[in-house]
From TrEMBL:
One of its GO terms (biological process) is siderophore transport. It is found in: Cell outer membrane. NCBIfam families: TonB-siderophor. GO terms for molecular function: siderophore uptake transmembrane transporter activity; signaling receptor activity. Coiled coil: none annotated. Belongs to the TonB-dependent receptor family. This is TonB-dependent siderophore receptor. The keyword Membrane applies.
């Protein structure tokens, strides 16, 4: 075996990292050539003294959910590079399976996460909502484990037609992510081609006038299915309950996969999404922050409001599986995003008679490209009668964006009770134009040691190099720079298998976030540091059909920018978030599925001028979700009938904007569903959302914008055929 050793004292250049990644890429095909010999060497017939490992059966990537008809899965990969039993990951995790996504009619990521335990979605146009966990907003998403930047305003969240399941990890995930917010990680496991022919089509329509169609076709190109492909197409038109708030989406997705050997698989995926929206920025409040009691269809937009984006992603993967259960993988993702929008909205709070003293407008032209490369190897090691695991890898990310913005007032006035959308269209001039280039590269490793059969000790670490530069395109001057050298991020966890189905755990995780502010000496502030202690227990109940978990967590975010009292900025503010979570998912009975969770959390500033104040005012202290589905299976015509229902209950929350406090009451919303298998391949489903037509605010923001009503009672009818 050839061993390559690379050492340095300063930041490694992109060339060095590229060499490491490229060496790994060369190694994988070589390993593939050795697969036959390795498999033979592992056979007891080849060596009577060899250790016989348990048989491993892998189907696809080993954890697809679309054919399971279940609300749970035993395997996850979020927060890991391996696909592992969910009980082996010592942090809170949630999985939204394909069955659940379809039952909840999820079309975009934010619509899927609105009912996910422990998650908070600050509503906006579908595809543009902000996603939160434990008080912090997600600033990246992963596709098959490869990260991409996320900014909610640009509407780049993926359509769910291309997704097999969504995995969520809560709390800092810096070991494999590098820089980021301490919210956690979201991984979209995209649909894979199947070895056997499968097709489906679905059409749906709702009581607002929205329609949607999907087509999904998976085809084997060889008799044994070693070469296979899949095509997914979707198109939707959503009118919603707010006047002049249409939302159109078009999606194309193609993926091919080939087994180069029985141990090596290559895949290529291309996806393209377009959104065309008449955006809506929410309602204003009265001047004192009191929320309006008004028709939920009320708009505050202009008839020229427009939002367009184009998102194209390319993913390539090459994986070799070793006979001992290990694997080596190289993967790459390239994304190109183009977003343009112009919209008008209320520029002031409403007077007592509803008058709006000004109408504002915002325009942006945003272009972004991003590249993510990852190469890693994971191998089990047999020592002292136990099997351990070692994983090492390297990754690289590059983001480039061009940002142009203009904003102002239209010169109009209006009245919230009689809104006139015929507003003066501005002549847009981009007063702010910047270009930002960001590079991040890192080396990471993780070991899993089993001193005894039932105990796993997990340790890991990462060194990250991060550099970002922002240039003002109008003046050609550099306006911002962030430079982080060899930032070390530790990871530690302990999992103890109390029984074959119950595993208590503890973990410590970290993440960092570079800052752009400077101190009195002109030096960039040290990065924010997020860290979390978590303890919990995970259990597989009812013969493995039902997964249950409970956790308590304590999260801190340090080095936040604050004033030193003399007009200077220092990295000294600290935030603390703590809480408990409970979750169950899976089969109560073979014909009865459930996904439910409860989260209690509190957050506060622990020092600085905000000391003692609530940090994440948007986040309700109590959040509860329940969704369940029951198939009768009693024979006769009822054998094809299924029903479902759910409850979402949030306690009160608020927003503090420019000294104005906006309070929102808690709410309880009930949804129901009924469906019937017309034939073995055709199913009709009717869903009624907000059954009791609860009138509530799902999000509050500022005195002039970002106050959104939740959806009124509505119905959606879908018809799906499989072939």
């Amino acid at each position: 075996m050839t061993v390559y050793t690379v050492s340095w004292r300063h930041r490694p250049s992109v060339r060095v990292l590229a060499a490491v990644l490229f060496s790994s890429q060369l190694a994988v095909p070589a390993l593939a050539q050795e697969a036959g010999a390795e498999a033979e060497a592992a056979s007891p017939a080849a060596d009577s003294g060899a250790i016989e490992l348990p048989e491993m059966v892998v189907t696809g990537s080993g954890y697809e959910t679309e054919t399971t008809d279940s609300y749970t899965t035993d395997f996850i990969s979020v927060g890991e590079k391996d696909t592992r039993l969910w009980r082996e990951v010592p942090q809170s995790t949630t999985v939204l399976t394909r069955e659940y996504l379809e039952d909840r009619n999820a079309s975009s990521l934010d619509t899927a996460l609105r009912d996910a335990p422990g998650l908070l979605v600050l509503d906006n146009d579908n595809g543009r909502s902000s996603l939160y966990s434990r008080g912090f907003e997600f600033d990246s998403l992963s596709f098959n484990g490869l990260p991409a930047p996320l900014s909610s305003i640009y509407g780049t969240q993926p359509d769910m037609a291309i997704v097999d399941h969504v995995e969520i990890l809560k709390g800092p995930s810096g070991l494999f992510a590098g820089a980021g917010e301490p919210a956690g990680a979201i991984n979209m496991h995209l649909k894979r081609p199947l070895r056997e022919f499968q097709g489906s089509s679905e059409v749906s329509g709702d009581s607002w006038g929205g329609v949607r169609g999907e087509a999904d076709l998976s085809v084997p190109f060889t008799e044994d299915g070693d070469v296979r492909g899949r095509l997914v197409l979707a198109r939707g038109h959503d009118e919603g309950w707010v006047d002049n708030n249409d939302n159109d989406v078009s999606v194309g997705y193609g993926t091919m996969q080939a087994d180069l050997t029985n141990m090596t698989t290559a895949s290529l995926t291309i996806s393209h999404m377009q959104r065309d929206i008449e955006p809506y920025n929410g309602l204003p409040t009265y001047a004192d922050g009191t929320l309006l009691d008004i028709d939920r269809s009320t708009t505050t937009g202009a008839d020229w409001n427009d939002f367009d984006n184009r998102v194209t992603d390319y993913i390539g993967e090459l994986e070799h599986r070793f006979a001992d259960g290990g694997h080596a993988k190289v993967s790459a993702r390239y994304s190109d995003r183009d977003v343009d929008f112009l919209y008008g909205y209320a520029g002031s709070a409403a007077a007592a008679n509803g008058d709006i003293s000004s109408v504002s407008w915002l325009a942006r032209d945003y272009e972004e490209t991003s590249l993510a490369l990852d190469s890693h190897i994971s191998k089990p090691i047999r020592l002292f009668g136990q099997e351990h695991n070692v994983l090492v890898g390297a990754d690289y990310q590059r983001f480039e964006n061009t940002f142009k913005q203009g904003r102002g007032a239209t010169g109009d006035t209006n009245n919230i009770f009689h809104w006139n959308t015929n507003l003066t269209r501005p002549s847009v001039t981009y007063s702010s134009q910047t270009e930002t280039e960001t590079d991040q590269y890192g080396l990471y490793g993780q070991v899993r040691i089993k001193p005894i059969d039932d105990l796993t000790l997990i340790g890991g670490g990462r060194s990250t190099w991060y550099q970002s530069e922002t240039t003002d395109l109008l003046t050609s001057t550099q306006t911002g720079e962030q430079d982080v050298d060899a930032e070390f991020t530790p990871y530690a966890g302990v999992v103890y298998d109390l029984t074959e189905t119950i595993s208590p755990y503890v973990s410590y995780t970290e993440i960092f976030q570079p800052q752009s502010q400077v101190n009195a000496s002109g030096q960039t502030l040290e990065p924010r540091q997020g860290s979390q202690y978590e303890a919990g227990v995970k259990a597989s109940l009812l013969d493995g059909g039902l997964n249950a978990s409970a956790a308590v967590f304590h999260l801190t975010d340090e080095n936040r920018p604050m004033s030193d009292g003399a007009g200077n900025t220092v990295a000294g503010e600290e935030v603390e978030v703590e809480g408990v979570e409970f979750e169950v998912s899976g089969n109560i009975q073979p014909n009865w599925e459930v996904l439910a969770g409860y989260t209690y959390s509190r957050s506060e500033y622990v020092n600085g001028t905000n000391s003692g104040d609530v940090f994440s005012t948007y986040t309700p202290r109590h959040m509860a979700h329940l969704w369940t589905k029951y198939r009768f299976n009693t024979g006769g015509w009822m054998n094809d009938l299924f029903v479902g229902g759910g409850v979402k209950a949030f306690s009160d929350f608020k927003s503090i904007s420019r000294g104005t406090t906006i309070n929102a009451d808690g709410y309880v919303v009930v949804d129901v569903m009924a469906g019937y298998d017309i034939t073995d391949s055709v199913t009709a489903t009717l869903t009624v959302n907000n059954l009791f037509d609860e009138k509530y605010y799902s999000r509050v923001g500022g005195a002039s914008v970002f106050n959104f009503y939740g959806e009124p009672r509505s119905a959606l009818l879908s018809l799906k055929a499989v072939f």
